[in-house]
Amino acid sequence: MRLRTLLLCVLPFVAWGQDPPLMPRPRSVVSGTGHLMLVAPLRLVVEGPESERVRRGGVRWKARLADRMRSDLTDTGSAGGTFVYVRFSTIADMRDIRSDGSYTLEVGPGAISIMSATDLGVLHALATLYQALEPYGDGWGFPEMVVHDSPRFIWRGLLVDVCRHFMPREMILRQLDGMELVKMNVLHLHLTEDQGFRIESKEFPELHEQGSEGNYLSQSDIRIIVHEADLRGIRVVPEFDLPGHSASWFVSHPELASAPGPYAVETRFGVFGPTFDPTQEATYTFLDRFLGEMAALFPDPYMHIGGDENNGEQWKADQGIQAYMKTHGLKGPQALQAYFNQRLYVILRTHGKRMIGWDEIGEVPEDGSKVEPLPRDITIQSWRGRDGLVSAARNGHDVVLSNGYYIDLCKSAAEHYLNDPLPDDAPLDADQRTHVLGGEATMWAELVDERNVDGRIWPRTAAIAERLWSPGAVNDVDDMYQRLEKVSAQLDAIGLRHKSGQLEILRIIAGRDEVSALKDLVDVLTPVPGYKRHSLAVHTTSTPLTSIADAAVPDPMTARRVAELIDAIIGGASLSDVSSFRYLLGTAEMSSDDLPCCQDIARVRSALGQRAMEAIDALLTPTSMGPGDCAAFQKALDEAQGPFSECLFADLPAFQRLFEAACTRPR
Amino acid sequence: MRLRTLLLCVLPFVAWGQDPPLMPRPRSVVSGTGHLMLVAPLRLVVEGPESERVRRGGVRWKARLADRMRSDLTDTGSAGGTFVYVRFSTIADMRDIRSDGSYTLEVGPGAISIMSATDLGVLHALATLYQALEPYGDGWGFPEMVVHDSPRFIWRGLLVDVCRHFMPREMILRQLDGMELVKMNVLHLHLTEDQGFRIESKEFPELHEQGSEGNYLSQSDIRIIVHEADLRGIRVVPEFDLPGHSASWFVSHPELASAPGPYAVETRFGVFGPTFDPTQEATYTFLDRFLGEMAALFPDPYMHIGGDENNGEQWKADQGIQAYMKTHGLKGPQALQAYFNQRLYVILRTHGKRMIGWDEIGEVPEDGSKVEPLPRDITIQSWRGRDGLVSAARNGHDVVLSNGYYIDLCKSAAEHYLNDPLPDDAPLDADQRTHVLGGEATMWAELVDERNVDGRIWPRTAAIAERLWSPGAVNDVDDMYQRLEKVSAQLDAIGLRHKSGQLEILRIIAGRDEVSALKDLVDVLTPVPGYKRHSLAVHTTSTPLTSIADAAVPDPMTARRVAELIDAIIGGASLSDVSSFRYLLGTAEMSSDDLPCCQDIARVRSALGQRAMEAIDALLTPTSMGPGDCAAFQKALDEAQGPFSECLFADLPAFQRLFEAACTRPR
To answer: Which terminus of chain B has a smaller tally of CB atoms within 10 A, N or C?
Structure first.
């Protein structure tokens, strides 16, 4: 029997609430007492303008419900069935970032009705219904409810870095499915980087030909992505990171760099020197033509110019650039970049685009340089800290929060979830608050490839989606986690690969199909968070991502449950099934020979579990841990600090609390 | 503990041989006694013309080795490492179907060398090396060996039907990876069908726009597929099925059909009436323009015109067509189709293409119709039986065998494996034998979608690949199965989804991640073979493919092992671990509540297992089964006949043999 089954058995207190497990939670749900059984055929009766979004979305929705119900819902001409009455007024224009996504959904005893201003609202209502589908007896149905729903923020984004490791079209298309399910509406594609130029240019084909090793998104791919995104109510914002993070451009165009070259595509990770030369007119001629081509390819009103992490080294080292700066009253790299941004701003305006960039583009040096701040209508994506968001909004810029949503850092869903773009105590006035458009999860791709990337994005990003959609008062972490596991299964069922990808790596590690023992171990591990993995081992673009740390997911559900269980016991709960608990803590199979890859980790886990059981026995009986037992527990805790293969035990703090309860508190 | 683990424990007699588990087996392998450890960096030293195939293939190969070894093999400038010396003379032109794919591979104590005439040989050698990689102690290496290898047949194909269920570009790209691993070299894309027109036409965009519901391969997709195929030494042969199987064309072009219409994309499966009208010149004008467009898109010298299963109904029902036939001395539908094919032949020749089609295009009615047989240079793909192959070859046509390779029929790998295109006793003379080019596995897509299709193709198609590559004398079924399981793991590791897709369906069925009990049950089930599933339930294009029968794979390895074990006991083997065996037979967890989806099947399996254990006890001890016990066993066997949810117990014949041994033979 597998760990997860045991967990379900011994943890009755982790039960679903009465409300349907919707994520994001709607603004208002009034639940009825009954439910509407879904009986085939399922018919959408649509009143409104012809909308490809509704038509294709309806087909997609039906097929997904049928997949889960394992029966055909198609209209075969038979009488009866389940009716969904859909009424909406207008087709949303995705170029209007304020398109209305609100909807009203009623599941009554006889039928379902959806009402919304735009066809986006219809998609949102269908996503809500998909999540509300539950088995009832031998069939499936929806709970009776009235939902009034609308998003809190208009910008609910996911950034996908397709550069550091290339992500093909299919990977992006399936993220769109996931985003639709949790009502996200901005896909931010990070398309150029030191490690790769990942988009086809017809104006300058040498860019992708020499900068990508054949791994790039074609313009045809982009058109498909943009269209499929639009069909799901999702905008696509392209990013061309300038003037730094740009080594891959210079493989074919060294003349645009601030040092002579030659350049190669970077294979390491970090911040590197190659930077555009802002002092040549040729730079702007080139960028005007390139960005013009891209402006025509991407219909979104926004174009992201990056602007982050220019280390200024090439500029400082070049006498010509230094002379130019002197002549133009630019006293440092920051001022020169501000000048560069001014030029880019004009180019983007020429092509009808609004500029968005990372924090740095909103900063102007106060060193007397002759450079103006960018106009107010640029949008700042805040990555470095909350201060950036506040100062940008105070300066009258729109702002999108990414600080706190860096999912590549492998932190907990709870931490991201509680990171509110606009908390009540934000030091902003009412007008300034309107500039906070929302947020974006960022999937930077140093340590993910197509096989494990879904496990870094999902399910945690669903918690971020809820933060950006639901009212700020929806912030109960335990409740979020309970729904998150359901959403995770739904994402799996519609084709996201967070579960499959992990098992694929485990099969490679184990060299066989049977991976339960290995999965039990990985289920309590988490990759070392932050960017510390880079200091533990050398990672380059050719490092295989098939290690334990690549299979382990951040904030694993199993570890969270182990921690809950330990905390319950510390809090005085009794324990009905000691043997299962022993297994959970790691004393059973963990030390077996089933884990040739990871015997050290298994041994440490097993020792920790044994000591924990002793502590639990002491807590549950009127005895105390002796000093020797406590010393042994402390030693096991010390040994369990890790990291092990760039991983930590995700539930270790709970074991620490158990130690404190059993060994340091007076009883 | 999972079933598979148990199997590995209790089945020591299923051990790998001494030879590396290569599939297809090379023409000659002389194994050494030692092995060469693979030490990073891994360097390919290439002597030969610049070949994108070798360069990209080398990168792909290295990354895949690194994935399995879980360590970086990149050249970081350090000394030492493993050297692979590659020498070849010419770049193969894929338009020459007789390009030389032979190679010599030597793994010696100090280095590896590859020698071949063309760069295709290099790819084949790399595939052989990938399969030969094995763990040795703490590292990985290759066994010392000298391999001389060349293919028996020049046409080693896989047909993918992207019509009945659409298969996106990514699905096809990953099949190319699988094909490369087992040295297949023809991808046959079945692009048009009653159920969908799946390729973009720029000449007639209404074809894919109205005939595909948005699910088609764009010309950009095709160019990528053709290029990636070429990089793997694989030709791409497109099929446009004419004149029948063509309802989807007529949605936008009813005027080309033999009856007025209107037409809709077909959602059922079978043989339907809609057929091109061969009596109008407009038909040929249209096809000339369309096939001309396709001829430019697909560089291969062959174009497949289908030609199968025209039921002639529309022709018989149309007075104008009947009158035309009378005027032209065509006495039946077969003669009219022969006339149509003559016209198509000229069109294909005009566009520089050789015609290939199913059996029917080689047949000319002997009813006195005024129609000539097609020229000798057409190629016949034989699907209906061995006779078709023989008569085609005798008529001087090249021929490709598909009869016996219909992988959609869910038959055993052994059956396909033993189906030799050119057995020694084939009634063909030496010249006629040269016309047998090879064979093609056919993945018809009535009952597969993107989630389960890989489980129908792999691993069985690797056995067909061996039949088409290796000498005919390589035909030991047990040996094939032993290697097949290794190849299956390799295919999983390089991205094929036969394992992942099954688990995805099982998670949907179970509604949770823990699916071991369900997998144990599915591992002894096989979808009802042949086309009988269509008589057991209604299947249309909208039937969800998330049932037990969609998760079950043909010829499951576990069932084969259960059968081996039973046969060993019948043959007199003793049994060291009765409890494990009891589990295998289905008496342990099968009946538990872990299987809410499938309690009936589990109960039947459990009863069967109990009776089988009684029989085994009787065989292992000097007792006999009493008449009552035998009657109960017979009853359990009867109940286990199925089908259950469109599945059968794949190991049932072994239980039948056990019954016979225990209850009908004198002891």
So the answer is: C
